[in-house]
């Protein structure tokens, strides 16, 4: 049977926070996740960006799920991530945790939004389905980003989920990334820096770096508290 793996791209001896990076996957699939698969490789630059934004204060962990699919009611990657959270919390007790997930990884992160150990989430082009319930807890910060020409996951569904979580009292930012697709390649630098800066800001309480002028977001950015 395939097994999930928790890796540490950036280890910090006494971190002030830890970010767990969650890759995407498929609706169904019981094949083992391999390190060379696109969904896994796509998250490497995000792990690097978080480490850079953390300036030596944020440890970065990356989870490789056991299998590639969500697999209906089994929610396969969710069980893997719950175990990874326990391992991170045991390694660094009491340290705030951030989640950064793309697509299926974004769905996983939103399913863990009620875990009080999770202080901040960056959900990138999250896969949201009708049965998914909004979850939150006091003090949660959530960034949802979605490409304006994403044809793989629904921007409308992710916006509705962001609004519902805001209604539960979370600090929510929804951002439409103009001109980009599900793969996040056309404006990769913006995706990396924006999500990493957001997590560093809310996990460390530091000012968020300015968005580069050539990477400004679309007019329909939504911000609320």
UniProtKB/TrEMBL annotation:
Biased composition (Basic and acidic residues): 213-225
Keywords, sorted A to Z: Hydrolase
Keyword Kinase (UniProt): no
Gene3D superfamilies: alpha/beta hydrolase
Gene Ontology molecular functions: hydrolase activity
Domain of life: Bacteria
Pfam entry (one): Hydrolase_4
Span of domain Serine aminopeptidase S33: 14-131
Entry keyword annotation includes Hydrolase: yes
Protein name (Swiss-Prot/TrEMBL): Alpha/beta hydrolase
Region (Disordered): 203-225
InterPro entries cross-referenced by the UniProt entry: AB_hydrolase_fold, Hydrolase_4
């Amino acid at each position: 049977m395939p097994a999930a793996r928790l890796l540490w791209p950036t280890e910090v001896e006494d971190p002030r926070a830890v970010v767990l990076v969650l890759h995407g996957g498929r609706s169904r699939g019981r094949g083992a996740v391999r390190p060379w698969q696109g969904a896994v490789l796509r998250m490497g630059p995000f792990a690097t960006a978080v480490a850079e934004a953390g300036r030596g204060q944020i440890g970065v962990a990356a989870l490789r799920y056991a299998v590639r699919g969500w697999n209906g009611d089994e929610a396969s990657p969710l069980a893997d991530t719950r175990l990874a959270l326990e391992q991170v919390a045991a390694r660094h007790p009491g340290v705030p945790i951030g989640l950064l997930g793309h697509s299926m990884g974004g769905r996983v992160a939103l399913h863990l939004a009620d875990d009080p150990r999770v202080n901040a989430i960056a959900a990138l082009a999250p896969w949201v389905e009708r049965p998914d319930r909004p979850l939150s807890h006091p003090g949660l910060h959530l960034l949802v980003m979605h490409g304006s020409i994403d044809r793989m996951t629904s921007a409308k569904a992710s916006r509705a989920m962001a609004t519902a979580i805001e209604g539960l009292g979370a600090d929510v930012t929804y951002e439409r990334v103009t001109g980009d697709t599900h793969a996040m390649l056309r404006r990769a630098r913006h995706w990396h820096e924006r999500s990493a800066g957001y997590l560093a800001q809310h996990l460390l309480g530091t000012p968020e770096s300015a968005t580069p002028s050539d990477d400004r977001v679309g007019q329909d950015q939504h911000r609320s508290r």
